[in-house]
Specification:
3-stranded antiparallel sheet
């Protein structure tokens, strides 16, 4: 009995059960069996894992947080008749987006390369408009967006082919149109202009518009990971059997990889699976082997979904819109955490409420490995945001000095008059004709009447600054029910 008491303490057995040796022996056998069972399952990837931070992607999202705010102000300014807006009215409209009072003025002051504040010549009040560089960046992005409409057609066809029914809800595509590089009028410029590829219809069950692919093209049923495997095989000469079903795995810094975890990844890499564009309706999915293949197919589907985006990233909420149509798991975040070597989940940008999924193999040192024109145009906005405010003052002086016309001549004459009068004053002061001290006549200080916030992040991001709009949040709640009726 004395030998069995330590084991009883480990199992937290009550003192009243000490005398029952059979009860203790059964628990000891159960304890040994569970240890053996856990060791036998150690060669499978754990279901729950902690997220390891990668500061490179998180810093990218910190910049993207400012970009999302800048885009909101740009939309407000561009929506005005003359593309200019009074500061007081801008502050009122910004409060509807979740900003606090006087926070709009403090925000635009931090980005002088994008926004310009000037005094109206007649009304004598402060107005805001986009700078010359800001307008050029918007024009460049619009040109890149129009130039890649054929590529948008190609991406939309592959996106519809990823769906098991070949159709997706139009509103879900509209919400994620910026990520997939679709123009604002994609319903007319892409869908209705190509009736040989797409069909737009209203579903009676859900009373929503759906986009359906007319015919599946076998030439498009090639995933990005398959092309990458072929490239690795031809360039490096890797054994085709070893990389036939494998993915590129690159774990974040600080990720602990044990011996059994390496074995689990090695087994998972060689596990066969059905391709995302393959029809699995005729397969029996009840066996354990079929479920494992479907899990790996879900990884391949999300991999292909991210490969179709412009910046190889997509928010978790956007992916959830396509969950039923593409047979993705319910708990997407826990599912993606099992494969941190392939995807990275960043929670930066909205106090942990926004989850952005990155395709790790597409980035290197914070930049896309294969950039496109639309990505480069959007990157220009990030460069303008990160530029120093001091450089904006220098650029403004250089731009003003290069202007021609009557205004330039008037400024030249006025400057000559000021110089001629100031020479006599300085001459008298130099020889002590006037005994008074010299005063700084250029010490005029003008304020904008705006309370400047000193915090780095201008204003705490509230629910109004979320990446999801009110309309989109309602769609998240109702999309699963609507798609379920349609699939039936």
């Amino acid at each position: 009995m004395q030998l069995l008491k330590p084991f009883a303490r480990i199992l937290k057995i009550n003192h009243n059960h000490y005398q029952n040796q059979t009860f203790i022996a059964e628990h000891l056998l159960y304890y040994d069996f569970t240890c053996f069972r856990l060791m036998s399952q150690s060669t499978s990837i754990p279901k729950k894992q902690q997220r390891v931070r990668d500061h490179g992607y998180d810093n990218y999202m910190e910049v993207h947080k400012k970009i999302r705010k800048v885009l909101k102000f740009q939309d407000i300014i561009l929506g005005q008749p003359n593309k200019t807006i009074c500061i007081s009215r801008l502050d009122i409209l910004a409060r509807r987006l979740g900003f606090k009072q006087h926070e709009a003025g403090a925000f635009i002051l931090k980005f002088p390369h994008v926004f310009e504040i000037y005094e109206h010549p007649v009304q004598r009040i402060l107005y805001c408009r986009l700078t010359r560089k800001g307008n050029l960046q918007i024009e460049q992005e619009n040109l890149a967006l129009q130039a890649q409409i054929p590529d948008a057609n190609f991406r939309l066809r592959k996106l519809l082919m990823l769906s098991k029914t070949g159709r997706l809800r139009l509103e879900h595509i509209r919400i994620a149109r910026l990520e997939f590089g679709l123009p604002e009028d994609f319903e007319f410029s892409v869908i209705l202009k190509n009736p040989q590829y797409f069909r737009l219809f209203d579903a009676k069950e859900t009373r929503s518009k759906y986009v359906e692919i007319v015919e599946r093209d076998p030439t498009l049923a090639t995933c990005a990971i398959e092309k990458l495997r072929e490239k690795e095989y031809r360039e490096r000469g890797i054994d085709a059997e070893n990389i036939r079903f494998s993915f590129i795995v690159n774990f974040p810094p600080g990720f602990k990889i044990g011996k059994y975890y390496k074995i689990a990844v090695w087994k998972w890499q060689r596990l066969p699976y059905w391709l995302p564009y393959e029809d699995v309706s005729n397969h029996d999915l009840r066996s354990l082997e079929a479920q494992k293949r479907m899990e790996k197919r879900a990884v391949a589907t999300i991999h292909e979904l991210l490969s179709l985006t412009v910046e190889k990233k997509l928010s978790l909420e956007r992916i959830a819109h396509f969950r039923l149509a593409m047979d993705l798991p319910k708990k997407l975040k826990e599912f993606l955490l099992q494969h941190q070597g392939i995807f990275y989940i960043s929670t930066r940008g909205n106090h942990g409420k926004l989850h952005t999924i990155f395709l790790r193999e597409a980035y290197r040192k914070g930049e896309l490995v294969e950039p496109n024109e639309l990505y480069l145009a959007r990157r220009k906005l990030a460069e303008l945001i990160l530029l120093s405010p001091k450089k904006a003052a220098v650029d403004r002086d250089l731009f003003d000095s290069g202007r021609d016309g009557e205004d330039g001549e008037r400024r030249k004459i006025r400057r000559d008059c000021v110089d001629s009068t100031s020479v006599g004053f300085m001459f008298e002061h130099k020889f002590g004709v006037d005994g008074g001290q010299e005063e700084d006549s250029d010490s005029e200080t003008g304020t904008l009447g705006i309370d400047v916030v000193q915090d780095e992040d201008l204003g705490s991001e509230t629910g109004g600054d979320s990446d999801l709009t009110d309309e989109e949040s309602n769609l998240v709640e109702t999309s699963d029910e609507d798609d379920t009726h349609l699939c039936k």
